[in-house]
Amino acid sequence: CDPKADSTNTLRDGSYIPTVLDLLRERGSVDAHDAIFQGYNGIYCVEAGGPAPGVGCAGRGITTAVQLLKQQNIFEELELDYVIYDVLGDVVCGGFAVPIREGIAEHVFTVSSSDFMAIYAANN
């Protein structure tokens, strides 16, 4: 759920992919397959996106993306071993807890810089 939508760039030779929220804004509904792209070594990539700058909650992007993937049974269809979420560390928002709250995440690992505010945000 990064407004820059660049979480998957290194897996896709620097190329950007459309975000779930951008596709929803453009089309009104989204087939999850239109938001899933393969990257390095066959890794599936999805960018949740976020609201327009200054409008809405950034956590809404991950909430919407997770709901879309669940509703369309993508986790089961793709038989994923791991799902990795790259979320902003400087925003404390309930939307980022969706994978845990929805029972999608069995384990959670936090990776951050040693910056005090990053650790503070992770603890919240």
UniProtKB/TrEMBL annotation:
<dbReference type="InterPro" id="IPR000392">
    <property type="entry name" value="NifH/frxC"/>
</dbReference>
<dbReference type="GO" id="GO:0016491">
    <property type="term" value="F:oxidoreductase activity"/>
</dbReference>
<keyword id="KW-0067">ATP-binding</keyword>
<keyword id="KW-0408">Iron</keyword>
<dbReference type="GO" id="GO:0046872">
    <property type="term" value="F:metal ion binding"/>
</dbReference>
<comment type="similarity">
    <text>Belongs to the NifH/BchL/ChlL family.</text>
</comment>
<keyword id="KW-0560">Oxidoreductase</keyword>
<dbReference type="InterPro" id="IPR027417">
    <property type="entry name" value="P-loop_NTPase"/>
</dbReference>
<dbReference type="Pfam" id="PF00142">
    <property type="entry name" value="Fer4_NifH"/>
</dbReference>
<keyword id="KW-0004">4Fe-4S</keyword>
<dbReference type="GO" id="GO:0051539">
    <property type="term" value="F:4 iron, 4 sulfur cluster binding"/>
</dbReference>
<keyword id="KW-0547">Nucleotide-binding</keyword>
<dbReference type="InterPro" id="IPR030655">
    <property type="entry name" value="NifH/chlL_CS"/>
</dbReference>
<keyword id="KW-0411">Iron-sulfur</keyword>
<keyword id="KW-0479">Metal-binding</keyword>
<protein>
    <submittedName>
        <fullName>Dinitrogenase reductase</fullName>
    </submittedName>
</protein>
<dbReference type="GO" id="GO:0005524">
    <property type="term" value="F:ATP binding"/>
</dbReference>
